[in-house]
Amino acid sequence: MSKTRAGVLAVLIGMAAIGALHHAETTGTRAGGQAAERPGHQAGRSATSTTGRAAGARTGRRGNPASGRRADREVTPIVIAHRGASAFRPEHTLLSYRVAISMGADFIEPDLVSTKDHVLVARHENELSATTDVEKHPEFASRRTTKLVNGARRTGWFTEDFTLAELRTLRARERYARQRQDNTAYDGKARIPTLDEIVLLAQKHGVGVYAETKFPTYFASIGLPLEKPLLETFKRYGWEDENDPVFIQSFEPGNLGRLRPLTRIRLIQFVAATGAPYDLVRAGDPRTYDDMVTPKGLARIAEYADGIGVVTKRIGPGETGGIDGRRISPAALVGNAHREGLLVHATTVRRLDARLRAERRGRDTDRVTEQVRTWLRHLYRLKVDGVIADDPGLARAVRESLRHGD
Fold it and tell me: Which residue ranges are recorded for the region named Disordered (predicted)?
């Protein structure tokens, strides 16, 4: 074993022990070096067994290095920590990412927006009031404004109106304070992290980064396009091709289309439950997300992307995705995508959603964990290539139990 791998292994074993202190029973997190056994990870790189692709192959359709590269053999799906371990720490903080790593996540997922000085930082949206203490800063009161972002009117404080130095004075807080009361204990303890910090953290612990570009059309329209700083950051840390532990995801096909000729990094087209990508709507293109999940739509995605991220409303238990009233079963959707050489990642399995469903129906919220387990088992049995979850410990535990025939 190389010194680098030995060092990473030691760090991960230590982090896994820490993870055992965080919901060891309720999340299924296992002590004893679990994090060091992530599928497809070596020190700073991912092996092809994670995705079932042949190393370095560039076969398939022109413009899509992924098409045709998904192997016929069984693959181990990756666990992607949604905004970090956001079920247990305020989202998009280094606190949340560290706990996700300790719980055994293979990838941590930052949503990326830009600052005024064109630095990429992790926030789910560019408006700051829902997840930071910006309202408590009188020096920024005059920056509260209303903007039209991807066709929606939003009022508040926006990352693009702050330099990184100014954002550093803010502190993160829990978005869902009532539903995630334990998380509020960490309000005010973390800053907004930069993409650089997130990549450094990931490489230190031998995990990958699953980055989402947020509102790329909007940011390009105000002179802060996301593509260049994104690729420059990954290149700075040696991540440039499909064998590196990094994905770039987007709801906007135009964003991915611009990235495709610039990088060999794997690209993921997200497919929402309803509606259409904003950039297509803006351009007058009639295609919808329903169109994207048809065989023809998947073939088109395969021309520029390596996979799809499908919302659980389309492939969850009892759910269908479709167009014009025609039903597309979850199994058919996943199978059709795989036939086009596309990876399929399911997004997002949330403890929060299960709790809210139970509350609405007057049911026992103590059964939330078992409900989430049921969803995860369903998705893994569909042969998805990855699951995005706010409880990566539980997602990992269910995956491992199925692998061992439990």
Answer: 28-75
Which of 266, 265, 345 lies closest to 309, judged by CA?
345
The C-alpha atoms of residue 157 and residue 178 are separated, in whole angstroms, by 23
| Cα separation, 66 vs 48, whole angstroms | 12
CA distances from 278 to 112, 289, 340 (A): 17, 11, 25
Residues of the chain with pLDDT below 50 are: 2-37, 40-73, 326, 359
pTM for the whole structure: 0.83
> Looking at domain 3-115+193-403, does it have CATH number 3.20.20.190?
yes
pLDDT tens figures, 20-71 = 434 433 333 333 333 444 554 443 333 333 333 322 333 333 344 444 444 4
Q: Give me the count of residues in the chain.
A: 406
Domain boundaries, the chain: 3-115+193-403
Listing DSSP states for 70-124 in one string gives B-SS--PPEEEEETTTTTTS-SSSHHHHHHHHHTT-SEEE-EEEE-TTS-EEE-S
